[in-house]
Amino acid sequence: xxxxxxxxxxxxxxxxxxxxxxxxxxxxxxxxxxxxxxxxxxxxxxxxxxxxxxxxxxxxxxxxxxxxxxxxxxxxxxxxxxxxxxxxxxxxxxxxxxxxxxxxxxxxxxxxxxxxxxxxxxxxxxxxxxxxxxxxxxxxxxxxxxxxxxxxxxxxxxxxxxxxxxxxxxxxxxxxxxxxxxxxxxxxxxxxxxxxxxxxxxxxxxxxxxxxxxxxxxxxxxxxxxxxxxxxxxxxxxxxxxxxxxxxxxxxxxxxxxxxxxxxxxxxxxxxxxxxxxxxxxxxxxxxxxxxxxxxxxxxxxxxxxxxxxxxxxxxxxxxxxxxxxxxxxxxxxxxxxxxxxxxxxxxxxxxxxxxxxxxxxxxxxxxxxxxxxxxxxxxx
Length: 381
Prior knowledge:
Elements: H1 8-33, H2 38-50, H3 58-84, H4 92-109, H5 115-144, H6 148-171, H7 193-198, H8 212-228, H9 231-241, H10 243-248, H11 253-269, H12 271-280, H13 291-301, H14 306-329, H15 335-351, H16 357-379
């Protein structure tokens, strides 16, 4: 039995809420076992994510939360698009690294261009570079049926090694051997959320949160239109749900799969815009390590839907920021415990996401049958 018989408010609301409750319970138990107060720890986790106006300013906490959430939106969408097409792309780490390399190459080499040309060119480079990186596994799948899981994860290691070589040998200041590139031109620095809010008279603390968050929301809206309101989106979802039926209907599966993976890679590459143009203003090693794999959990938590992915990204962004504040406020809870908390959430929202589905579905069907019988009896003359 599946949860397909459930209305959306149960499938997308009640079930995830129950899974998150299990994650909170497991987290509290783990914190209690190491001798800390779980209620205080979870409270600090929430305060660290959204602020309390006193210990942690709201603007400071939310700025960091939105910054991390931006990365999760891009990588969550990247995984969801590929998954809708029936492909398990777990190479977002390598793809966003490739996007960062392409962005840095364009930004450094074309640094004399004005901002209104250089910034769009850099954004385009990040998307194209990442798309070209995933094109290799995509072609291998289309032409030779190579397993996408294996090829994309192998490309992660190659991207990591390539990043080290290019940064040290070509992007760093000559003769220094530094593990970061030279600084990007000043005109590529994106507006921070704090500066944007200051235009309307709202004063908040300066944080890495920047205008890329708005871009991520726009991209998510575009992906919703593409997936659910376009002919190509219908073909893509059909190809992933039932390849045999799609082939019978005349859908070009290799073409649809190829395009889906290219879009997936391009979305992952946009993480470089947030990290490099919005925050560090230079290419660094492992600039977004972990967000590629975290995007898988975000996408699964959001049921592969752009709206759900935004909510999941905000949750995981708050988890990253709140976890950092928690480890600072409660020294007894080390960074490893924060990672464990994230692991609990990922486990209960992905591996066991349908743990309550059968029971809730049965209860809903019984309730629906009872309601129908009651309506029928009440409708008799």
